[in-house]
């Protein structure tokens, strides 16, 4: 599916959701969920291509796979968190959306600790007398 089709689906769904929101808000929200899932499914091939390209680039740069996998997990958590928080916010639950975003940030921080530690150790190795 190309971008024009995706944008068209989004615009048509938006008009229907706006029309339904006043009288049938639960159906409007279900239509929103369905549209979001349809768009997400339609871009899965592009996502797979991007991940395979990133994998190839990491192999060419001789990046350790543990770091590469961790970075991909961090990116995935960021996108999933944003996706979920926006859906929750669209349902009118901004406070809950903020808590989902906070949880996503904490998971990202947990995953990033080994990378940050390795980076600090590498920097300390370059500073004479700093390594213990």
What's the SSE blueprint?
Layout: H1 3-21, H2 25-42, H3 44-60, H4 65-90, H5 94-126
Structural class: mainly alpha
Number of helical runs?
A: 5
Helix content: over 70%
Computed Rg: 21 Å
What would your notes on this structure say?
With 132 residues, the chain is mostly helical. The chain has 5 helices and no strands. The protein has helices at 3-21, 25-42, 44-60, 65-90, 94-126. 2% of the residues are buried.
Quick summary of this structure?
It is built from five helices and no strands.
Labels describing this entry:
132 residues; mainly alpha; 5 helices; 86% helix; 0% strand; elongated
């Amino acid at each position: 599916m190309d971008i024009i089709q995706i944008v068209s689906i989004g615009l048509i769904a938006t008009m229907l959701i706006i029309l339904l929101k006043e009288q049938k808000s639960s159906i409007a929200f279900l239509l929103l969920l369905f549209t979001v899932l349809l768009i997400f499914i339609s871009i899965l091939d592009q996502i797979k291509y991007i991940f395979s390209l990133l994998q190839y680039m990491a192999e060419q740069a001789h990046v350790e796979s543990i770091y590469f996998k961790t970075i991909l997990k961090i990116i995935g958590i960021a996108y999933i968190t944003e996706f979920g928080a926006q859906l929750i916010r669209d349902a009118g639950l901004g406070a809950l959306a903020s808590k989902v975003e906070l949880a996503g940030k904490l998971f990202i921080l947990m995953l990033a600790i080994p990378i940050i530690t390795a980076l600090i150790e590498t920097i300390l190795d370059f500073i004479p007398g700093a390594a213990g």
